[in-house]
Amino acid sequence: xxxxxxxxxxxxxxxxxxxxxxxxxxxxxxxxxxxxxxxxxxxxxxxxxxxxxxxxxxxxxxxxxxxxxxxxxxxxxxxxxxxxxxxxxxxxx
Length: 93
Hints:
It is built from 3 helices and no strands. By secondary structure, the chain is mostly helical. It has a domain at 11-50 and 68-89.
């Protein structure tokens, strides 16, 4: 079985890359303050483009490992097994 590949052209991608090639030197010539403004503008643009449930100016609960005692115990047991330590060396205080 012979597989033939047809060349694929991406004119939109090529135009986008050409525009980007023109924008990069312009962005590099900006002052630090203007670069930060550009970053903020682009980040806001990306955030508005995303269809996400995360909203600006809202707070969200996040999991933290600071109370993950069972996970810590598993990790300590794995270390004890790997380095052949006695179990007494791996006790959570």
